[in-house]
Amino acid sequence: MASVTIMDVARKAGVSKKTVSRVINNEANVRPQTKEKVQAAIDELGFKRNPLGMALAKNRSLFIALLADNPSPGYLMNLQKGILQACTEEHMGLFLYDCQYRSPSLVEEIQTFIENTLADGLILVPPLSDKVELLDMLDRKGVSYVRIGTKDTKRGDFVGSNTTKAAFDMTEYLIKLKHRHIGFILGHPDQASSKRTEQGFREAHAKAGIPVDESLIAQGYYTHQSGVDAAMTLLNKTPRPTVIFASNDEMAVGALCEAQSRGIKVPEELSIAGIDDISITTKVWPNITTMRQPLNSIGYTAASTLIRRLQKKPLEQSEEAFVNQLFDCELVIRQSTKTYVG
Amino acid sequence: MASVTIMDVARKAGVSKKTVSRVINNEANVRPQTKEKVQAAIDELGFKRNPLGMALAKNRSLFIALLADNPSPGYLMNLQKGILQACTEEHMGLFLYDCQYRSPSLVEEIQTFIENTLADGLILVPPLSDKVELLDMLDRKGVSYVRIGTKDTKRGDFVGSNTTKAAFDMTEYLIKLKHRHIGFILGHPDQASSKRTEQGFREAHAKAGIPVDESLIAQGYYTHQSGVDAAMTLLNKTPRPTVIFASNDEMAVGALCEAQSRGIKVPEELSIAGIDDISITTKVWPNITTMRQPLNSIGYTAASTLIRRLQKKPLEQSEEAFVNQLFDCELVIRQSTKTYVG
DNA sequence: AACATATTTGACACCGGTGTCAATTGAGTT
DNA sequence: AACTCAATTGACACCGGTGTCAAATATGTT
Questions:
Q1: What is the mean pLDDT of residues A335-339?
Q2: Mutating which of B77, B78, B85 best tests the A interface, going by the most A Cβ atoms within 10 A?
Q3: Dihedral angle of Cα A242, A244, A245, A249, to the nearest 10 degrees
Q4: Which domains does chain B have, with CATH numbers?
């Protein structure tokens, strides 16, 4: 409780507050021997700079906030882990803010949050990262942010994965397994990633010279339940698809549920595939074949991008091009997919 | 950016800084008409108090931290949601800190974290909440905390659920379903909740006058994989258990995986039950019967308990008894359990 | 040795609020 | 109208740091 202040150190080292400040900030133009003297005092007294005092003086709070709408626990958790790792390394704190994407007052709520906490910057997770009104507000207020998700409009810093390619690769793989009736579950129509997965799905068909079976495309919303519902629709079609490829794992697991509840054997009678590689894919039987999205790295990169951005002067920032980093996904073959044998 | 300060308001209202401060803190002894005048200026200028200035002056940062070791994504997510809700209502920020329970320098790392952020208080999630060295350090430094989990030692504020009763109720239910060979997967031996679930399991047997089949008790560690492993052991026994009751859902799902990979039909040939009611229980087929732990409420209660504690003076605090709130769990019957028919 | 220049250092105001305490104001009494 | 006492208000220092700028010191030159 009786915390050591910068003044205590200054007195002990026989220098001024400012000089101590210089040492702890590693500023140039401090004579080595002075620096040593001060450092000794710091060590001896166990001084730690009070982040609040610094924040007030510098008008920089040393923490960033993660804005999320809790899409799927696994997805968010993985991101969060990467983000936290970067924050810890850079001595930044991470604030959490949970929002309701659907709330009509979303933008105001977030604005209030920012004012209440003075977070230096924000990390936006889909579907928030696609919300134009939100980005407008942040730009207007001059708040730095990094968007995570699927590359859509060029706007601000962005980190995500190559969703089109992920869907393409998976579709190609399924085609290689001789599947010709591929049921496809679309993502949420409002989210950028949705168009991308569909695009990849179609491109792979085109490349293989196989027509897309339009009747086997069902709408989904990235939720487990929407996967169940879409699978229900697809499994009622004749001929039945021999594989269901969902735009994310959450829905793939939903499809698995629906298949199993009907007594359809996976993968013998139906293959199932998803995208993301969230933890649940290996917690169900059979484990789900998926495209691994490096969420941990994405989170890490997003956070360190944001932190680096914050360290630059606002002027520099506006002149420099925005970061736009895309990771590739990797095919992870598990037990839920199998060669189709007519 | 050009933020409005308390001085701006003071000038506009023709009063002193301090009077404005009184108004925004709703202090007594401000003449109504003065208050009105100030409030008008505040509204007109759109003034928001800078939390950093306040934090520095009051030596209270207005945020608390959630320390977690990410046991199961679903578990943590639910808690987090409740915690965040309470924080939002009380205008508190929530910091996140991810730690490695196993790290030998855990205590120092957490200490550094506290010093770096000046969080007013901490919320501890199992297994952190059982870690004595950590509690010692926090007590020594005078940091307020609330522990979440299973009631063990009386130490600090505590919020959790009645684990013994949960295990008791589930066991009783399984016995009512005529199961006599109940496979039981223990929790992590280091965590307090483990003893409690075992206790409840045994008490239910005792009450029903049925002996516990000791050969059907397997060690688990609360992880999915440990559930798989324990189920493997149990399913190799003769006679095979007719139901597997795991100390948490994560392991129950693991057991389900193992059963399904062996081609054992659940619930026809084997029933499965867990505790917690995390989201995955309804994302697998069949849905898992479980004891619903009100994690959201627990998180909410923990956070508001902590916040209320922080609002009291340290002196008062040490004199007052600690909060110790236990929630009851509720039996949620789903498709994974079924009456045993010899 | 005297001077010009570069490097180091410190005094002081300031970031945006709050606590203390004395000064001012208003109400109630005689 | 003068006086007492409580309610209201403001001046000022302070929380723990940083930025500015001028003063002090060190270094290099002739």
A1: 96
A2: B77
A3: -140
A4: 6-49 (1.10.260.40), 62-161+295-328 (3.40.50.2300), 163-293 (3.40.50.2300)
